[in-house]
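Lay summary. Proteins are chains of building blocks that fold into shapes, and those shapes determine what they do. In this project we predict the shape from the chain. Here is one chain we studied, written as its sequence of building blocks.
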Amino acid sequence: MRLCRFISFSALFAFIATPLSAGAETLGYSEFKAGPEMTWMDRVAEGWDVSVGGGVLFKPEFMGSEDYEIMPVPMIDARWENRLTINTREGVAYDVLQAPNYRVGGGLGYDFGRDDDDGEDNWLRGMGDIDATIEARAYGEYGWGPVWVEGEVAGDAISNGHEGMTATVALEYRQRSGQNLFVSFGPSLTWASEDYMQSYFGVDARQAAASRFGRYSADSGLRDYAFDGSAIYTFGSEGEWFASGFGRVSRLVGDAADSPVVQEEVQLSGGAAVGYRF
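And here is the predicted shape, written in a compact code that computers can read:
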């Protein structure tokens, strides 16, 4: 589920979002079976299902940056009894309720924060670091055939980073093409609390004195809207190998877009990976 990725591809391709918060970004092998003819419930129902791999991620240097970076990322995905998930996208998640056309659960993810030296030409110098933190999250999704509605709420669990919360809703179309290809795509909206918005987009008096920016207050509200697309292809004698990729375009809105910290409102990200399922 794209929303439950969060370690933010906005995250990780890593397979690091968002979150929907980062978002959504890439499908691991286990998610290949989440098409309309074969739901996520058709994954291995007993014992462990493990996939490993690696790839590359293309993303902004920080939220609102006009500069981009390309980085290698690992992928580890372990699932137990179709309920417990441990991976580099979602962190740790557990489905409390589940059926072929819905699931509801919660878990712990990770927000990587932001460094004072992110961006070219010391753009953020004087803003200070936003520390990385663990996020607690709750998620759910419901499907009508190939169309799924998804939702996620995530918040700083240890008050060590942005100290706020985000809520994301998404509409996703999932479709299998033949026996080896699965694609998904759809739009999403993300709301953020005042603490979150002020951490990433606001400028307080201390930061204004130390940086190039004037004071700026960012209130709670919509952070961005986005459109994501992803695909996965399996190959090998038993389909044990897979190749996957994703693309995402988002646009910051409201107080986030108006922030002096933001260089570019439209943000692009993408990635590709190859892996093996045991």
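What the prediction tells us: The chain has one domain: 2-269.
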